[in-house]
Amino acid sequence: MARILLNKDNLFYNLEAISQKATSKEKVAVVLKDNAYGHGIVEIAKLSCEFGIKKAVVRSVEDAQKIKDYFSYILILAPNVFHNYSHTFHIALNTLENIEKIPQNSNVHIKIDTGMHRNGISIDDIEVAILGLLKQKANITGVFTHHKGADELSTNFFFQKELFSKAKAKVKEICEKLFLPIPAFHSCNSSALFREKNFEELNEDFARAGIATYGYLEDDLQFNFPKLKPVMSLWASKMATRTLKKNQSVGYGGKFTASSDMIVSTYNVGYGDGFLRLNENHNYTTPKGFQVLGRVSMDNLSINSEEEEVCLFDDVRELAKIHNTITYEITCSLKENIKREII
Ligand SMILES: *Cc1c(COP(=O)(O)O)cnc(C)c1O
């Protein structure tokens, strides 16, 4: 099987850029959902901890368990089971209906819907949520929201920001009235963080950095986003080499035909490993200038190379374009059983 190399220097470079923008390492929560966007949850957790990041965001309780030794503060976005959690776990409340399932003493972050209309409660329900959680004897440790398009040029970003600042004011007012501690506030994902002119002025407790950690941001020049460094590269090993004679073709459908005699090798990665299927409609060139020939199979692909190991990508932006998707999907698709190695 193929292997994934994780470039520690690049990860640290990105975490440094994020920490500076957020004003300190304490104000960064690294987002590790979905196997750390395909990079390997435990590997990225260990490295982020080594760098000095104290907070993480995951999808499930199972994920939080896997990384609990590396962080002092873990936000669980979509808790699937409700039982008693570790005191370092904070669970998101995505709907009022879940309040009664929350066990005593749980730390809860209330998710506010500021316009994405996916999860979260409306501003009008904040007081109901707080009172309900108090009745449940839960600790209200955070209030947050999520942007639907901080990486796009539109007014959504400003609109949601405005609504969240209203929500924050309301939460503060209610907490003061009830003699409750003011919870942590957070609203920024990667692009929102880098779009903020001055994160300090936003007066929030941390930012949730996902894609920027891994080296990508939508690089629309108008936002002046910094250049980050991709962390992941995908490598495949040679299984077989042959000479493809002029007019012979390779792979399913025989969609690549040699125009003259050429050397072709098969490498051990395919769409079954999560390397999305390229076919005759795409030209994809590896970082070293080799071509992926014809159609990618489930477990292997053909390349005009003889090297023992080839790097299929060290930056997924080109593949994201080819597949008409976002960088997130290219990295997330890589299966968990591929070996991850830190270099
Ligand atoms: C995925 C996610 C993030 C991280 O977003 P990026 O764009 O990758 O930085 C932050 N917050 C929530 C709630 C998320 O689901």
Automatic annotation (TrEMBL):
Entry-linked PROSITE patterns: ALANINE_RACEMASE
Pathway(s) where this gene product acts: Amino-acid biosynthesis; D-alanine biosynthesis; D-alanine from L-alanine: step 1/1
SMART domains cross-referenced by the UniProt entry? Ala_racemase_C
Catalytic positions are K33, Y252
Give the modified residues of type N6-(pyridoxal phosphate)lysine. K33
Keywords, alphabetical: Isomerase, Pyridoxal phosphate
GO terms (molecular function) for this protein are: alanine racemase activity; pyridoxal phosphate binding
Q: Which cofactor does it need?
A: pyridoxal 5'-phosphate
GO BP term, example? peptidoglycan biosynthetic process
Coiled coil stretches, renumbered = none
- Residues at which substrate binds: R118, M298
**InterPro entries referenced in this protein's UniProt entry, alphabetically:** Ala_racemase, Ala_racemase/Decarboxylase_C, Ala_racemase_C, Ala_racemase_N, Ala_racemase_pyridoxalP-BS, PLP-binding_barrel
Q: Which GO terms describe its cellular component?
A: cytosol
Its catalytic activity? Answer: L-alanine = D-alanine
Q: Report the EC code(s) recorded for this entry.
A: 5.1.1.1
Q: Does the keyword Cell membrane apply?
A: no
Transmembrane parts of this sequence: none
Ranges for domain Alanine racemase C-terminal: 231-343
Protein origin, superkingdom: Bacteria
Q: What does this protein do?
A: Catalyzes the interconversion of L-alanine and D-alanine. May also act on other amino acids.
What NCBIfam families does the database record attribute to this sequence? alr, PRK00053.2-2
Which family does the UniProt entry place this protein in?
A: Belongs to the alanine racemase family.
How is this protein named in the record? Alanine racemase
**Lineage of the native species?**
Bacteria, Pseudomonadati, Campylobacterota, Epsilonproteobacteria, Campylobacterales
